[in-house]
Here is the input.
Amino acid sequence: MMYLIPYIILILLFLLGFYRDGGYDSGEISIIAFVSLALIAIAGNQYVKKEKERNAKCKHGTVGALYKYKKCSLCDEEKAREEVFEALIKQEENERIRARQEREHREWLAKIRLPEYLIKMDWKEFERLTCDLFRRMGYEVKETPYSGDSGIDGYLKKDGKSSILQCKRSKGYIGEPILRDLYGTMHATGAHEGYIITTGKVSDQAKLWARKKPIKIIELDELVKLIRAHYSENDIIVSGRDKLSQKWSSGSEPLWG
Here is the structure.
């Protein structure tokens, strides 16, 4: 009868509450009676249900095995076989998923080695690819949000030097104003260097302006060489970074700040 205890306590609380209000009227008494009977009925129904489960027989004739299958050795064996079967199904499903991920990863590796793919790829994917490339080159990288990033696509750090990264997926030319903005952001953030990575070209005038400044320019041809050097065709999927799925930071503070 343990099922009745919480309901009895609840009923007593009801009675105490009405008593503190200064007694009962006929309506309050009716409410108490109705609630009490309802709770007792619910508790009794649960008790009867549990008792039926405890006393029910399994298909092998063991009393209580439906309530607790280990009471029947045959039920226990069947449960163990079911668990093994479910584990095998789960393992096969995981293997299929892994095989599909590896196939997609190999296809992706082949694509990023092609200049024409880099030019046409989604700009968000291009930023993630560039940040991951710098990780493979030994940099600590903190990616930035896609909006409100002040033109910075990543904060870099290596050998004690801090850098900012700007990616430009473009078919055309990058002009001097872009490099001027990058240079200004470098001073604002305290970065030692700035990287401009583009699938296009940087104009001769812009290169001339940046010649003696700590700005490193990587155009399409050099970018393809770096990707081919750091992404082998036999590259394996790294846990936590499958197809550049590594989470980028939602913050905007410099990595070195």
The two ends are 64 Å apart (CA to CA). Residues 239-253 have pLDDT under 50 and may be disordered. The longest helix spans residues 73-112.
